[in-house]
Specification:
There is one protein chain. This protein is α+β, with helices and mostly antiparallel strands and about 200 residues long. It has a domain at about 140-195: Roll (Nucleotide Exchange Factor Grpe, Chain A, domain 2), CATH 2.30.22. The chain has two helices and six strands. The protein has helices spanning about 15-110, 120-135, and strands at about 140-145, 155-160, 170-175, 175-180, 180-185, 185-190. It has a three-stranded antiparallel sheet. It has a three-stranded mixed sheet with strand order 2-6-3, with no helix packed on it. It is rod-shaped, with a radius of gyration of 50 Å. The N and C termini lie far apart (about 160 Å).
């Protein structure tokens, strides 16, 4: 054999198989340990993920409940605004009709007594009663003034006259209210202390 040549190698397959067989239980045990650790990490990861998803679900539920409450408040507000607009429109119409009612009452009060039995006059009186009934059905009430204490919230003093102090002695123009709100104050003559 030459010096630069390597000696032939002899491989004993039985011994390598034996060594492999001896190392396999150790590797299997290490792999099982590794798998157990991975499983534990995986379970812990799943638990964390589950907790995160629960938090997210609770946040979605809270947002949904808030949105539902906001929508209910919105609906209630819209209904209130709608009712208020209807009430204001009704009030505006009634305010515009009150001068017609005043004119009709003044005209009927100034009719000559000789015309009392005329059918056309009775027809106009019926129209006036229907008009008053319509106002009452709409919630319009006449403000009591004659003989009452003067109240600047519902009465408007036009002048002073001789009479009991701070009492309404006569009504110049009737006042009306709708649902507790004054549509038009009563124009009145207020009594003042006699000197």
């Amino acid at each position: 054999m030459r010096e630069d040549e390597e000696p032939p190698r002899i491989i004993d397959r039985r011994s390598s198989q034996r060594m492999r067989a001896e190392s396999e239980p150790a590797q299997t045990h290490a792999m099982e340990r590794e798998n157990t650790v991975k499983e534990a990490e995986s379970i812990e990861g799943l638990r964390q993920q589950l907790a995160q998803e629960k938090e997210r679900a609770e946040a979605y539920l809270a947002n949904w409940q808030r949105a539902a409450a906001d929508f209910q408040n919105y609906k209630r507000r819209v209904e209130q605004e709608r009712a208020e607009v209807a009430r204001l429109a009704n009030a505006a119409l009634i305010i515009n009709l009150l001068p017609l009612m005043d004119d009709l009452e003044r005209a009927l009060d100034s009719v000559d007594t000789r015309l009392a039995g005329m059918t056309w006059l009775d027809g106009i009186r019926l129209i006036e009663r229907k008009f008053q009934a319509l106002l009452e059905m709409s919630g319009v009430t006449e403000i009591e003034a004659d003989g009452q204490d003067f109240d600047p919230n519902v009465h408007e003093a036009v002048t002073f006259g001789e009479g009991e102090e701070n009492k309404v002695i006569s009504v110049v123009q009737k006042g009306y209210s709708l649902g507790g709100r004054v549509l038009r104050p009563a124009l009145v003559v207020v009594g003042k202390k006699q000197e």
